[in-house]
TrEMBL record:
Protein name in the entry: ABC transporter permease subunit
Coiled-coil boundaries: none
PROSITE patterns the UniProt entry points to: ABC_TM1 (PS50928)
ABC transmembrane type-1 domain mapped to chain residues: 63-267, 348-538
UniProt keyword Cell inner membrane, yes or no: yes
Stored InterPro entries: MetI-like, MetI-like_sf
GO cellular component: plasma membrane
Topology versus the membrane: Multi-pass membrane protein
The organism's place on the tree of life at top rank: Bacteria
Native species: Microvirga makkahensis
Keywords of this entry: Cell inner membrane, Cell membrane, Membrane, Transmembrane, Transmembrane helix, Transport
Similarity section: Belongs to the binding-protein-dependent transport system permease family.
């Protein structure tokens, strides 16, 4: 085997990668931990903030509400996503491509847009509620815990659908056929054979949806009303210019991170030692169903994806309605778009500039880190890989507070600049690129690169000239997914923005909170159009929906 020099360009890349993660992840988050352990009055070490979380009912409710939203959203998303995945992989359904497209539409629309759409339909002045009132049917507005969980379930089920669909399609049909030949009923076979084989996929999607649910700020803020969670409480405490309590906000943030980490380690504990695979002999087949069973399968599958895509559809339709404050008027109009273009176009440009700048840095850094993880195994790269998990479990609101705490004073006084938003987006979305590149490298052997080095190429030149072209689809998929999520970033931007650096998600959020539903609809439609365009490009370049989105 060819011996590599201990000190080559990749050694310096490794040092630089650690420097970036320390400066933009570990150092800012350490300020949150430090702030949570200091008394506000004396500045001395104290656990008073954590004691207050354990004893004050408002904070206890926030913790309980966070867990309720997390487990409620996770359970709803699992029920919807696994059901849809099972239907589409086990039965012939007409329009499977349409179902997948609608699921992706539900996936790429920001969660807070979903919350806003449900308000348009079932809020205090909702269109559906007003229509039902006209015929004598009165229903309460959809606010509070039920509304938050409903939005989370229909927002996040596409993650479950895409992950479990791949797992169900990889099951060895012989195992299920063996159970059937032994007289096991279809229902029992489903729970004793099929689901255990896809438990890693189910647990991975459960972990993802739980973390996404407890980290979400916009949905409980918009539709929760008095249903406060840790993210909204932390924002309220830190965002108050008069009488703010950054120490308590930091303590709540730490609790939020700990909850996420408990679920992460819990998932790994559940999967420990057990084997969940079988050798692929026969691929699963889709059954042709007829009669009432066929109708039921199609109705259920389409109902799930149509309701999931409903928020995006409603936003687009209502962006062309006349508005008077929070009330939509009859008739088609471009009034909202005219207002956006003439008076508030800056958020559009800020979003494009900040996202593009962050993604350029993400692609370069993520590609190099992905290579280190895949090709240069060792203690340092293993630790680097583990640290890359942190941005997944740190909510955006926490990252925003960490950045504004750490970069608020000279010589690194970046508060109020566009750079601090770019930095926050960069570190939050870096794992997408690094993971995508690492996955692509697993499918490309090192032989060609080694041959190039043996012919006189330096390691860096061999990487650029030989390896990068081979993994370009993976690089582009990670880049576009980073761009999609960067454009839709709300939580950290809401903490870090000032008037001149406001982005589209922040402006949409503020418009909803101010009752400017027409403006919110128009901006949301523009944001959705930009996102769908990026998703289409990701599909085209990656060749697989799963690789582009996960």
């Amino acid at each position: 085997m060819r011996r590599r020099s201990r000190l080559d360009i990749w050694t310096f890349v490794l040092v630089a990668a650690w420097g970036i993660l320390i400066a933009l992840l570990i150092w800012p988050l350490s300020s949150i931990l430090r702030s949570s352990l200091l008394d506000n009055d004396t500045g001395a070490f104290s656990l008073v903030h954590y004691f207050q979380i354990a004893t004050i009912k408002a904070y206890q409710r926030a913790v309980g509400n966070t867990l309720l939203a997390g487990f409620g959203g996770m359970t709803g998303a699992l029920l919807l996503g696994v059901t849809l995945a099972f239907l589409t992989t086990r039965f012939h359904i007409y329009g499977r491509a349409l179902i997948q497209t609608l699921a992706v539409v539900a996936l790429v629309s920001p969660p807070f847009i979903g919350a806003y759409s449900w308000i348009v339909l079932f809020g205090a002045s909702g269109v559906v509620r007003k229509g039902l009132d006209a015929i004598g049917i009165s229903i309460p507005p959809l606010y509070g815990a039920a509304g938050v969980i409903l939005v989370f379930a229909f927002k996040f089920f596409p993650h479950v659908f895409l992950i479990t669909s791949g797992a169900l399609a990889s099951i060895n049909r012989s195992v299920e056929e063996a159970a059937e030949s032994l007289g096991v009923s279809p229902t029992k076979r489903l729970f004793t054979v099929t689901f255990p084989l896809i438990l890693p996929a189910i647990s991975a999607s459960a972990l993802l949806t739980f973390v996404l649910s407890i980290a979400d700020f916009g949905t409980p803020r918009i539709i929760g009303r008095d249903f406060n969670v840790l993210a909204t409480e932390a924002f309220n405490l830190y965002g108050s210019e008069v009488g703010g309590n950054p120490g308590m906000a930091s303590a709540l943030s730490i609790v939020l991170i700990v909850l996420s980490m408990i679920i992460v380690f819990g998932q790994r504990w559940v999967l420990r030692k057990n084997v969940y695979h079988s050798n692929m002999i026969k691929k699963p087949e889709r059954k042709q169903v007829r009669g009432f069973k066929a109708v039921g399968v199609h109705v259920l599958a389409y109902a799930i994806v149509l309701i999931g895509a409903l928020p995006a559809i409603i936003v687009v339709l209502f962006s062309f309605r006349r508005t008077s404050g929070p009330v939509f008027q009859p008739g088609v109009s471009l009034q909202s778009y005219e207002r956006v273009i003439s008076t508030i176009s800056d958020p559009i440009w800020n979003t494009l500039i900040f996202s593009s700048t962050a993604v350029v840095a993400i692609v370069i850094t993520g590609t190099l880190i992905g290579y280190l993880i895949s090709r240069r195994p060792g203690i340092a790269t293993g630790a680097l890989d583990a640290i890359l998990m942190v941005p997944y479990v740190v909510p955006g609101i926490v990252m925003g507070i960490a950045f504004i705490t750490r970069f608020n004073e000279p010589p690194l006084a970046l508060t109020g600049t566009g750079l601090i938003i770019v930095m926050a987006v960069f570190i939050r979305r870096l794992p997408y690129s690094a993971r995508s590149v690492a996955a692509a490298l697993k499918q490309v052997g090192p032989n060609l690169e080694d041959a190039a080095v043996s012919l006189g190429y330096s390691p860096g030149k061999a990487f650029v000239k030989v390896t990068v072209p081979l993994i370009l689809p993976g690089i582009m998929a990670g880049a576009l997914m980073s761009f999609i999520t960067a454009m839709n970033e709300l939580s950290s931007s809401l903490v870090l923005y000032v008037g001149s650096t406001i982005t589209m998600p922040v402006r949409i959020y503020l418009s909803v909170m101010d009752g400017e539903y027409g403006t919110a609809s128009a901006l949301s439609t523009i944001l959705l159009a930009m996102t769908v365009t990026a998703v289409y490009a990701a599909f085209h370049l990656s060749g697989r929906k799963e690789s582009a989105l996960l």
